[in-house]
Write a structure and sequence with these properties.
Helix content of chain B: under 10%
Helix content of chain A: under 10%
Number of helices of chain B: 0
Distance between the termini of chain A: 36 Å
Oligomer: heterodimer
Structural class of chain B: mainly beta
Low-confidence stretches of chain B: none
Largest interface: A-B, 25 and 23 residues
Mean pLDDT of chain B: 93
């Protein structure tokens, strides 16, 4: 079992470009959660998705950010027109059902740097 | 808004020392409190606490929850250099985790 796979591990984008972060949940997990960790801060919830459904996106910035979890393939967190303030570590977690924090497994994160 | 506060923000100890990390919280619809260890990668699960006064232990680590006073502590005894990490406290309500800023623990040989 490969665990939660995130790629890329590191991503550098220039201001104004788009960033696409991918998350493949653990096998058998159908619930995905995205969190953002800004420097010197704790992880902040962004969005909770099930296959083809956004359940809660209350932590997503209103503009430029979107997330999806299609029927086939990984979950994608998309940031359009990136700005310096988007530089952070983005973590994905998955669980077999919700809520189930014993089964809530984090990926190793994608570190986004906007230059 | 849910609030989780950890203290201290950082500490440095020597191998063999005991450390105590604190976590206080104010959340709506509390379900559980969780502790994670983060070493430059994914946060790894340590404990989940749902009931007051029941200590959970795993090797040299232990944790307890006080739901009346809304706090938890994480103890690490006989610290080793491998314990150096950021320790994160999180509170869950339903499916969402609210994290504190973490405590950075550095254990010197």
């Amino acid at each position: 079992n490969a665990g939660v796979m995130q790629n890329p591990r590191h991503l550098v984008r220039r201001r104004g470009q788009e960033a696409r972060l991918r998350c493949s949940p653990m096998k058998g997990h159908s619930h995905v959660y995205w969190y953002r960790q800004l420097p010197e801060e704790g992880l902040k919830f962004m969005v909770y998705l099930q296959k083809e459904n956004i359940i809660d996106e209350s932590g997503m910035p209103k503009e430029r950010f979107s997330a999806e979890f299609p029927k086939e393939g990984p979950s994608i967190l998309r940031i359009q027109q990136v700005v310096r303030g988007d530089s952070a570590a983005y973590f994905c977690a998955s669980s077999p059902r919700s809520p189930n924090f014993y089964g809530y497994t984090f990926g190793s994160g994608t570190r986004l740097t906007v230059v | 808004e849910d609030k989780v506060v950890q203290s201290p923000l950082s500490l440095v100890v020597h191998e063999g020392d005991t450390v105590t990390l604190n976590c206080s919280y104010e959340v709506t619809n509390f379900r559980s409190l969780l502790w994670y260890k983060q070493e430059k990668k994914a946060p790894t699960f340590l404990f989940m606490l749902t009931s007051s006064g029941i200590e959970k232990k795993s090797g040299r680590l232990s944790s307890i929850l006080d739901k009346k006073e809304l706090f938890s502590i994480l103890n690490i005894t006989a610290t080793q250099t491998g314990d150096s990490a950021i320790y994160l406290c999180a509170v869950s309500n339903d499916y969402k985790l609210s994290f504190g800023a973490g405590t950075t623990v550095t254990v010197r040989a």
